[in-house]
Design goal:
This protein is α/β, with parallel strands linked by helices and 151 residues long. It has a single domain, classed as Rossmann fold, CATH 3.40.50. Helices cover 34% and strands 19% of the residues. It has 5 helices and 5 strands. Strands 2-1-3-4-5 form a 5-stranded parallel sheet, sandwiched between helices.
Length: 151
Amino acid sequence: MTELVYVLNGSNLNMLGKREPHLYGTTTLAQIEQQVQALATKLELTCEFRQTNSEAAMVDWLQEAFERDAAVIINPAGFSFASVPVFDAVKLIERPLIELHITNIHKRDETYRHSLISRAATGVICGLGANGYLVALQAMAMALGKSPHFG
């Protein structure tokens, strides 16, 4: 049986590859999605991969994930630090929830160090660049009782 995993991306992540490449790298979100979908297939996971700049859409998707009993990998981006509605929606998730950040938020200035989402997350992955998505997916597979794919 394949498990359903939502991979949700927050504000400005549609600009990956263009926006501050010295921080976020040159890999685009479309390239990340291709890599995630390929690995998900190997891990026997079904991925819903989405991005929004809208706080309301993110809340709707988290509620949808809850209703579908899905696990969640979320890169909340700017929603991490001030969005109580996204935080409240994250708390609905009963399956594993992994928070993901491309940069190491703990090395950044104070504005980016304290994520509300971390308080509800099963685990947090940060600072691994675009590869963090693949690490998160492997960690999710293990959390869901599936064998990870290393290689």
